[in-house]
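Subject line: Sequence and fold of a protein, written as structure tokens
Enclosed: The protein record, placed directly beneath this head.
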Amino acid sequence: MKKLTVIMLSLAMSIIAGSAMAKGNQLLDQTHFEKGIKCASCHGNAQPREAVTMMKCVQCHNTEKLAKKTKDMQPTNVHNNRHFGTESNCLSCHHVHQTSENACVSCHPRWGFKVP
């Protein structure tokens, strides 16, 4: 029964990822998978899977380096901002299993950043 659940979940995720890619909008779980990163790398091996926190993201993604890489973003560098500096919660914008979104736009409607 456990194997069937895993197979069904894998199939469902493939369909979701495939439909996102068909729209030209690849989800971050697929991006990570293509780089050889397994689900357990972020979610752990426990069942049910652990929720991913920002602390898990920063184990691989250095916020200081990201802020330097995006220093020329206009009208502002969202990765080094006046609210949180370089410690904005990654998960506010970047969603792994859903389409990412621009969380800044709720207060800053003119900031039409494209979020990978």
The first helix runs from residue 2 to 22. The radius of gyration is 16 Å.
